[in-house]
């Protein structure tokens, strides 16, 4: 395990996903700037989510077949520059184009970033992948704070500030990250990229992909409806709702880091199975809880268990497709943080017609499906990955 390289990759992941985390904060300013309806504003979030969802696997295939290491720094740069132009866009349509370009940058980064993280991991793959995935979670968490600072100081044109961290981190990883260019340019690197280290197990990977999509829906569902649940169901203040979301994110970061270490000791499938099984029990309890204090207490293990599986699932995906690490990473890591956003309108419909608690109850049943899917995951063909 190469700590310096892992830290740089994690920083790059944070700098990339900061832009996705910042988008919701931009909406009120963008609405005022262009006199938009709520539906038109929501299309901004939907656009970046949709673009990332569909282009991420494509970039994964490109990374596997053509081995383009520049996609990673390019992704960081485009994600930041695209978002920085949103506030400078003269029309709503050009703003959508800027958001779409940012989404393409996010999609370009993940496959190459995860491939390189896999190379630097050594025999601690789940640990390193969990640390790498934590970078994305931190990006989502701090993105709103950075964007809020810039927007309150400079107004809608403050989005230009988002280009600064993107440019800085791009230069850092392009010129300092050890082995970034060497690995892809040596004959050993090309050989590894082309031939891989085993047999691709497509059936297992498809099953894993379905599991990842359900986990994504759980994450986005909680992220979207948790503050509303706190305010309208538990009758708490908006500040309390924001605090609940902070607790969920903070618990998720800790769970992500712990999940990788646990999986490296007890095995990938065993760790994921236990995590989803525990979530299947505690999430429904949370959905029926009427006490804000108990709800906040239960929210901690929900955040822990929901995020602990991210790193192990990423490594499992790479182990099922050892010859296509880019594609495996683009699906298991990229879709894990994008697909769920396309499903939130469905749970919003449930909330509109049957109440917010019913929507949370429906969401709380998904970990049961994830537990069942995990139980059917076969042992990876690459024996050294599973313990």
UniProtKB/TrEMBL annotation:
Gene3D superfamilies: MFS general substrate transporter like domains. GO terms for cellular component: plasma membrane. SUPFAM superfamilies: MFS general substrate transporter. Pfam families: MFS_1 (PF07690). The keyword Coiled coil does not apply. One of its GO terms (molecular function) is transmembrane transporter activity. Keywords: Membrane, Transmembrane, Transmembrane helix. Residues 5-382 form the Major facilitator superfamily (MFS) profile domain. This is Permease-related protein. It comes from Vecturithrix granuli. The lineage of its organism: Bacteria, Candidatus Moduliflexota, Candidatus Vecturitrichia, Candidatus Vecturitrichales, Candidatus Vecturitrichaceae.
């Amino acid at each position: 395990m190469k700590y310096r390289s892992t830290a740089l990759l994690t920083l790059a992941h944070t700098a990339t996903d900061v832009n996705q985390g910042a988008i919701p904060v931009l909406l009120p300013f963008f609405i005022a700037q262009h006199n938009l309806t709520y539906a038109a504003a929501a299309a901004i979030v939907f656009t970046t989510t949709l673009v990332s969802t569909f282009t991420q696997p494509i970039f994964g295939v490109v990374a596997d077949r053509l081995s383009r290491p520049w996609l990673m720094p390019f992704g960081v740069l485009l994600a930041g520059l695209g978002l920085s132009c949103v506030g400078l866009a003269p029309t709503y349509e050009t703003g959508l184009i800027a958001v779409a370009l940012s989404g393409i940058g996010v999609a370009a980064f993940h496959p190459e970033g995860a491939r390189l993280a896999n190379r630097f991991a050594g025999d601690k793959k789940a640990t390193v992948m969990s640390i790498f995935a934590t970078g994305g979670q931190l990006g989502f968490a701090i993105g709103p704070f950075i964007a809020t600072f810039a927007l309150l100081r400079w107004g809608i044109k403050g989005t230009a500030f988002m280009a600064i961290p993107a440019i800085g981190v791009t230069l850092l990883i392009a010129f300092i990250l050890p082995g970034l260019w060497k690995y892809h340019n040596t004959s050993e690197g090309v050989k590894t990229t082309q031939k891989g280290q085993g047999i691709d197990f497509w059936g297992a990977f498809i099953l894993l992909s379905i599991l990842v999509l359900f986990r994504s829906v759980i994450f986005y569902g909680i992220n979207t409806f948790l503050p509303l649940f706190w305010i309208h169901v538990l009758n708490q203040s908006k500040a309390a709702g924001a605090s609940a979301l902070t607790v969920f994110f903070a618990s998720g970061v800790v769970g992500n880091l712990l999940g990788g270490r646990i999986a490296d000791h007890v095995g990938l499938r065993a760790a994921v199975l236990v995590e989803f099984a525990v979530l299947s029990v505690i999430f429904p309890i949370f959905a029926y809880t009427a006490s804000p204090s108990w709800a906040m207490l239960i929210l901690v293990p929900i955040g822990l268990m929901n995020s602990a599986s991210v790193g192990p699932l990423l490594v499992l995906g790479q182990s099922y497709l050892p010859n296509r690490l880019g594609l495996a990473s683009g699906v298991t890591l990229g879709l894990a943080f994008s697909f769920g956003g396309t499903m939130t309108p469905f749970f919003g419909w449930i909330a509109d017609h049957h109440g917010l608690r019913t929507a949370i109850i429906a969401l709380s049943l998904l970990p049961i499906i994830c537990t069942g899917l995990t139980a059917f995951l076969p042992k990876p063909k690459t024996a050294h990955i599973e313990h």
